[in-house]
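In this supplementary section we document a worked example of the pipeline. Step one takes a protein sequence of length 507 as its only input; no multiple sequence alignment statistics are reported here. Step two produces a three-dimensional model, which step three serialises into structure tokens for compact storage. The input and output of this example are shown verbatim.
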Amino acid sequence: MRRQAWYLVATLVIVIGTFLATVLSSATPVLGLDLQGGISVVLAPAGKATKETLDVAVNIIRNRVDSLGVAEPQISRTGSTIVVDLPGVKDRSKAQRLVGRTAELRFRPVLAELPPFHTGSAATTTTTAALNAASSSTTAAPGAATSTTAKGATTTAAPGSTTTTTVSPAALVPTTPIEQDTATATVVLPLRHVKGQPDIRLQLGPAKLTGKGVSSAKSSYNTTDGWGVDLQLTGSGLSAFNAMAAAQYSLPSPQNQVAIELDGVVQSAPKFNTSHFDNNGVRISGNFTQTEAGDLARLLRFGALPVQLKQLTSENVSPTLGKDQLRSGIAAGIIGLALVAAYMVFYYRLLGLVVWGGIAISGLALYTLVTYLGKSVNLTLSLAGVTGIIVSIGITVDSYVVYFERLKDEIRSGKTIRSSLDRGFQRAFRTILAADLVSLLSAGALYVLAVGSVRGFAFFLGLSTLLDLFVAYFFMHPVVSMLARRPHLLRGPFGIAAGLDVREAVA
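The serialised model returned by step three reads:
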């Protein structure tokens, strides 16, 4: 009895406490596209594309969406199509243009190195031609003439931006917006952020070579310069690359570097180590980790096979429509719940109130979990998820029915109500566990095999089923045990005995 009391108290404290903390923190579940509105875009490659290039395209689109500031975007690949759901996006036309824009790998000459943009300045017409670029601290990697040097991320920031009273002219030059980043333009783009390294930007000239000039790229390790990328170029690509090398090799740093740009970000900026490369290819090296070398090689291969994405469908989802659907779904759930609650009280009397309490505890715990998962792993609540939650109410009520009917069988065999509680629950819980496992297996199969909204339905159904097991063990049985040990709650037309079809209230 004491253990059951501890179970009940601990359950109530944990569930109600975490729920109140969630409400007081003003946190709410993250709503999906169909509930808060936004846009849904389906993209497909115009020609042949491999799984690897599509996966890279998904990552590029995800980076673009992050720059829009969209909360909880859903970007996934389904077969050969890419589905982009952007809930709550404000500038929908800009989002559609950005998502559907084809990425192009570009090799640009580096003109100057700039510090981060000084956002407090209103200057937008500063000329960068006369800027003092920082001197490079990069050293040439040893090896044959077919290698370049380390990434440009090892260079230092431009002088003049370290005081609090003077802003370097370089800091007044704005970064080029992605829609103005064309192959023929002179641009200012950020170098890919590296943890522990200062953020810098590079002024770049027009592209001299694109990903079409790349034949292949793979990461490899050797004892001379560690991890690096072996780049093979086509005939025309090698000619263009050699023209850049001849023009920039003898220039001071950073003008002797070539920027490898993809989607508005400089992925790497190695220094030319020779003025001419032969058919053996180009090696990009310098303090790379295995992961960094592999990532760069994958981007270069992607540039060799650019994915031309075409827009299959673009759907604007109205937030008003989503809210109307949510209200209708909640109203349907409340009506169904009220009917179930009324039937439980009519059939099981006082024990019907235990069902009410269990559903309430499950609801509070589910709200807290969905809110927490929304903030931690970007879980979104969609209409399909709401449907899964409503369906799970039937599973929850079934658990109580199984327990109460098992108590009836124990009492009919000659046992008292009190002596039937623990044995009846042990046998009932085995049945509840078996039934819930079937639901979990079905939900798991749906989640793994299905796509889109069906996965949301499966996830919330499975989550609610797990909560049912928790509430059945730590709430349902302790509450019934404590109520059944109160003699005044056993008797009467609304007592426990009446709900269990016991003619006499025998404790």
